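Hello,

I think I submitted the NAP job twice by accident. Can you confirm which output corresponds to this input? Input:
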Amino acid sequence: MKILITGASGGIGRELLQLIACDHPDASITATCYSNLPVPVPSDTVQWVQVNLTEEDQVKALAEQFDHLDWLINCAGMLHTPHQGPEKSISQFDADFFQHNFQVNTMPTLLLAKHFAPVMKTSQQGIFATISARVGSISDNHLGGWYSYRASKAALNMALKTLSIEWERTHKGVCVAALHPGTTDTALSEPFQRNVPVDKLFSPSQTAAYLLAVINQLTARESGHFWAWDGQKIPW
Ligand SMILES: NC(=O)c1ccc[n+]([C@@H]2O[C@H](COP(=O)([O-])OP(=O)(O)OC[C@H]3O[C@@H](n4cnc5c(N)ncnc54)[C@H](OP(=O)(O)O)[C@@H]3O)[C@@H](O)[C@H]2O)c1
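Support: Only one job matched these inputs. Its output is below.
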């Protein structure tokens, strides 16, 4: 079994990598980081690669290292930068911040799908999943705000749904999925945790265990859905 975990240097990605490496000791696992260093993993089956997932030539070069892939789990994403956070009001909208959200939250999944399509084609129990966010659900939006992040995750969800329709014909053994991790105590959520009840703020290892339980249940017949950490389907 061959597994690729992108964004594996992040809070959720690193815990998911540790769990998957323990669960699949015989798998060949590739993990990517970007600006942070690789995280030590107690497994010699993990190979680290540094990749900027917003650069198509780097994604292409990564894919060229594979002749086959079963699981691709993309954990990369962003919510804020050192200078800007999600908008509380439309008056705070900024075109550059909006584009940055789309570059990091939406585009990598499309680039990964494009360049890994050939090597996932023969997988019989394949999974192509990206961590999205419940706030990207249009029908679940009751609070407003966070224009750029919400829009980038809604676009990500549309990209995954569209891919699932194409791959139903071409990649019959692969399940395409969007995943919602729940609010998790990482650098990404840290500035926004104040109003989150303690029992609704998961540790990264808790989230990784929940997400892996969902991933383990996925089959190609259930392709094209948006799954929450507890295994419930979220409406698009
Ligand atoms: N934490 C939450 O409460 C929460 C809730 C809902 C959804 N999510 C989603 O879950 C995912 C993971 O979030 P997290 O909390 O684990 O965030 P995090 O700790 O900030 O990790 C973000 C990851 O994205 C990678 N990344 C960022 N820009 C990249 C780029 N250009 N190329 C390649 N990799 C890049 C980072 O790599 P480096 O660190 O190496 O730069 C890091 O591995 C995100 O998509 C986020 O939107 C999180």
